# Entry
Amino acid sequence: MSAPLRLGERVLLLDAKRRRYLVLLTEGGEFHSHAGYVPHDTVVGQPEGTVVQSTRGAEYTVVRPTLEDFVVEMPRGAQVIYPKDLAPICMLADIGPGVRVFESGVGSGALSMTMLRAGAEIVGYELREDFANRARANVREFLGEEALVRYRVELRDSYAGIDRADGTFDRVVLDLPEPWQVIPHAESALQAGGILVAYTPSITQAAQARAELKGRWIDARTLEVLHRTWHIDGQSVRPDHRMVAHTGFLTVARFLGKGRRRDSAGPAPIGAAADPQGSM
# Structure
């Protein structure tokens, strides 16, 4: 990561007002803004942290983008899942090296990149070819060509089923309007002990998904993540006036396996509050 900046990679330009610009360095290229332009040649060969000036004197600090930077600024077709939800999804789904994931609703590839970087192997179903192509391109650009060995996206409808030829999976991760339509198919594709996570914008979608997570599923729970930053300036310390509040609900459950059912409520989900009245 300490190598000089080179042609063909993306860099992040930060201006004095903390505005961020994702730029692909090309031979003879130029970054243009209201404050003039910066020739790419002045960036190529420099170390990270270099400060360059535009033709009108504006200064930009040049660094390589982190995964968070790339997800927020990358080219996209579909709306992406943002970093505040990406990390919890990977924690809830217990994503790690060698974990085999079925993903549906690939979109622009933000979640795919996060899971691939953690070492997962992914088979994704996506309805739209432009979204599938964009996801592959974003994965290739940020993680490199070698990541595509662990990433296969098919133009298929997961509501219609999960192809047996794709094998079995350790995890199912869904970003779909109607994830409950996929849950019965997931029961045929998941290994016993596997985990399903569904990201849904509305609570009614989450409730309908939860209604389907019965019988062969345990420890079902739904949560949302709220992201509040703080203003810290000397002795002035307070929450920022704005925060990233609701973006989506995360629903997670664990699969018991084929032929096993639990129709009772079962044990309380992890983190659930104890009954204040106790047992009688």
